[in-house]
Design brief:
By secondary structure, the protein is of the alpha+beta class. It has one domain. It has helices at about 45-55, 90-100, 100-105, and strands at about 15-20, 25-30, 35, 40-45, 60-65, 70, 75-80, 110-115, 125, 150-155, 155, 160, 175. Strands 9-13-10 form a 3-stranded antiparallel β-sheet, with no helix packed on it. A two-stranded antiparallel ribbon has the order 1-4. Strands 2-3 form a two-stranded antiparallel sheet. The longest helix has 13 residues, at about 90-100. The two termini are about 20 Å apart.
Length: about 180
């Protein structure tokens, strides 16, 4: 299903495996917001992408946007609390991140939302993650990216930087561009 992947020769034969989180690089953005980045944390990402694209029960959705209902420009699949994730490496990633951020988060990551960007026309508009506790409390969102590289842009709002992890619900915005 969906997009063909121009895989990495450096990653082509690696079995999926998580590296250490010791190399996480944090950038403080002010007013309690920050972003952590760790390139290459997952080896075998091409295999993970191919299996997810093929095996996840992807759903197309429609959503109210201003005065009309539109197609959501990506496919989605949500895994609630205690749901088995589609690949064991994703459970390992969630457990590793829960352990690493335990002091800051105060609880484990409990759910997982997967997004499948099939081609250069799929995207996400500027938005704030305002579902669940993120609607009314500070929250963290972990993103593990596989497949073709995509640009994640962030923007400053009047009330400060709000984005990925370590965000406050008042004024965050982020998007994946086409």
């Amino acid at each position: 299903m969906g997009a063909d992947l121009q895989g990495s020769l450096l990653d082509a034969f690696a079995d999926p495996e998580l590296g250490s989180l010791d190399g996480v690089s944090r950038t403080e953005l002010g007013r309690g917001a920050w972003i952590d980045v760790l390139p290459g944390w997952l080896t075998g990402a091409d295999q993970v992408y191919e299996r997810l694209a093929r095996e996840v029960p992807w759903q197309a959705e429609r959503r109210q946007m201003y005065d009309r209902v539109v197609d959501v420009p990506r496919l989605l699949c949500f895994y609630g609390e205690n749901a088995e994730l589609p690949l064991p490496i994703l459970d390992e990633a969630r457990d590793a991140l829960s352990g690493y951020y335990a002091d800051e988060l105060g609880e484990p990551f409990r759910t997982a939302g997967l997004c499948f960007y099939r081609d250069g026309r799929d995207s996400v508009a500027w938005h704030g993650d305002r579902i669940g506790r993120g609607n009314h409390e500070d929250t963290m969102v972990a993103i593990l990216s596989v497949g073709e590289p995509r640009v994640l842009t962030l923007r400053r709002l009047r009330h400060g930087w709000m984005l990925l992890r370590g965000e406050t619900p008042a004024a965050r915005r982020n998007r994946f561009v086409r």
